[in-house]
Every structure is written in structure tokens, then in C-alpha cells.
């Protein structure tokens, strides 16, 4: 018997990193899992490795596609919104164009789509879990747009918790996590992440499975709503 036997779980951004680790964990707990993202190659690779998860191609900015997914599943027990969903420009606020700054907020708009279209399909005991990030919790030079986006996600979580109860909504704020988000670094990825880890209290960056474990807590703890959980190796401490 798994914690999620006969339950339906949908993960957006579920073909890589934190979303994929969450999809795998939910499947291992017995859930029927749908995991979506935009890129065909990521979907084929994830499907080959995990044939018992329903991977589908979907952009979280596509309202009709999202609606069709929720309608096809029907009754949904848990939704996890983990898609990156935006092009981010990391440079000081005064050096960013308005367009670049607004671009980071595409992640927020993709999360509002998932919430608005998905919550009606959640069971009364169901949950929605968002993923924000450490830039929302601790300011850093060059990270203003990412920081403001994460703060918006956390603000939405608290506001939405009031409006959708007894359905629940929470947010997990990861520190620096070794995922596909850093694949652009190529063969420098391991060294760069190792260096970044030196600035973290626990002396390393995190793994996607460590964030999936916190998302799993948000899904399974039926007395948690409206909260932000930091999973960052102590990076918020001085
Ligand atoms: N890794 C970190 O250090 C870190 C730190 C703080 C917060 N976060 C947050 O954690 C979340 C997960 O990131 P990750 O680190 O797991 O990155 P990742 O490994 O790059 O995974 C991101 C996933 O989102 C999907 N995606 C991106 N845009 C999408 C869209 N518009 N519609 C549907 N799917 C989309 C990607 O697939 P496609 O490209 O195929 O669409 C991929 O499956 C993100 O919200 C990120 O901002 C990460």
C-alpha cells in the first residue's frame, strides 16, 4: 500500500529536475501521475526511463491545453507547479529593460494559470504546491526580477489559501539545487555548483530529491496550508 494509491497527481515542469523527482516520488507512493513540459526530447527521455508515468507535451502558458489536461484527468488529488516557465535576465535592476524584468514574471503567470484552471478539479482534500526559490527569501545583486517573481508566488500562496480552503496550497523555496536549470554551463556545471555549495552552511548544493521530499510533505500533511518551506542547506543563515 502506498500513501497515494488510487490518487491522481499532476506535475507541471515534470520532465526534469525538481518536477521529475516529484513525479517519480508520487508514482513510487502509488499515484497515477501526469507530468508535463514543452520539449519533445525531454518527454521522450523521461518516458523511456519512467514508462509508468504519463508524460505529455504542454506549455503552462497554454490555457486550452492546461484545461484539456485537467478535464481529461477529471478528479485531481494533488497538483505540483514546478515549471521554470520564463526567460530570466540576471543583472542589476537599473541595467534591465522593462521587458527583461517583466519576462521573469512569465513564471508567475504560468503558476496563476495552473491555479485558476486546476483548483476547480482538486478534490476537497486536495493540494496545490508551488515552487518559488531562495532569491525570494534573500536579496542578491542581479536577482531582482527572480526575487520579485518568487515573492509574488509566495504572496499568491497565502492569498489563495484563504480563498480555496479546505483545499490546500503551499510553496517550497529551494536553495541552489543541481538540476537541468544549470545544464547551460555544460562541462563546467559540476565545478560551478561545487563552488556555489561552498557558500552554503551545509557546504554543498542540494539535490532535486531533497526538494521533492518537501513537496511530498506539502501534499501529504493535511494540516498545512498557506506556508512557505525553505529547503536550502541553511543558506538563509548568515
Ligand atoms: N535549481 C535551482 O537551483 C532552483 C532554485 C530555486 C528555485 N528553483 C525553481 O524550481 C523549479 C524547478 O526548476 P528545476 O531546477 O527543476 O529546473 P529544470 O531541471 O530546468 O526543470 C524545469 C522544468 O520546467 C519545464 N518547463 C519550463 N518552462 C515550462 C513551461 N512554460 N511549460 C511547461 N513546462 C515548462 C522544463 O521542461 P521544458 O523545457 O521541456 O518545458 C523542465 O521540465 C523552477 O520553478 C525554478 O525556478 C530552482
Give the CATH topology.
Answer: Rossmann fold
- SS-based structural class? alpha/beta
Number of strands: 9
Number of folding domains? Answer: 1
Low-confidence segments, given as residue ranges, are none
Number of helical regions: 8
* Beta-strand percentage range: 15-25%
Summarize the main sheet: 7 strands, parallel
Share of helix among residues?
40-55%
Q: By CATH's scheme, which homologous superfamily applies?
A: NAD(P)-binding Rossmann-like Domain
Strand order of the largest sheet: 3-2-1-4-5-6-9
CATH architecture designation? 3-Layer(aba) Sandwich
**Alpha carbon gyration radius:** 17 Å
> What's the N-to-C terminus distance?
43 Å
CATH class: Alpha Beta
Shape label: globular
**Residue-averaged pLDDT:** 97
Q: Quick gist of this model?
A:
The chain has 238 residues and is an alpha/beta fold. The protein is 40% helix and 19% strand. The protein contains 8 helices and 9 strands.
Amino acid at each position: 500500500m502506498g500513501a497515494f494509491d488510487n490518487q491522481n497527481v499532476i506535475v507541471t515542469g515534470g520532465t526534469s529536475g525538481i518536477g521529475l523527482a516529484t513525479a517519480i516520488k508520487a508514482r513510487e507512493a502509488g499515484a497515477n501521475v501526469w507530468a508535463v513540459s514543452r520539449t519533445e526530447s525531454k518527454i521522450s527521455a523521461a518516458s523511456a526511463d519512467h514508462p509508468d508515468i504519463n508524460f505529455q507535451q504542454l506549455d503552462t502558458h497554454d490555457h486550452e491545453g492546461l484545461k484539456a489536461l485537467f478535464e481529461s484527468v477529471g478528479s485531481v488529488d494533488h497538483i505540483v507547479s514546478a515549471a521554470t516557465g520564463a526567460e530570466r535576465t540576471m543583472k542589476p535592476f537599473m541595467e534591465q529593460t522593462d521587458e527583461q524584468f517583466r519576462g521573469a514574471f512569465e513564471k508567475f503567470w504560468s503558476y496563476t494559470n495552473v491555479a485558476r484552471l486546476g483548483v476547480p478539479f482538486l478534490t476537497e482534500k486536495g493540494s496545490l504546491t508551488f515552487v518559488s526559490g531562495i532569491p525570494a527569501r534573500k536579496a542578491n545583486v542581479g536577482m531582482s526580477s527572480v526575487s520579485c517573481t518568487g515573492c509574488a508566488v509566495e504572496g499568491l500562496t497565502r492569498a489563495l489559501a484563504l480563498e480555496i480552503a479546505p483545499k490546500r496550497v503551499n510553496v517550497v523555496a529551494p536553495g541552489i539545487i543541481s538540476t537541468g536549470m544549470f545544464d547551460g554551463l555544460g562541462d563546467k556545471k559540476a565545478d560551478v555548483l561545487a563552488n556555489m555549495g561552498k557558500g552554503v552552511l551545509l557546504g554543498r548544493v542540494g539535490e532535486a530529491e531533497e526538494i521533492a521530499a518537501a513537496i511530498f510533505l506539502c501534499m501529504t500533511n493535511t494540516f498545512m496550508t498557506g506556508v512557505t518551506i525553505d529547503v536550502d542547506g541553511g543558506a538563509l543563515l548568515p
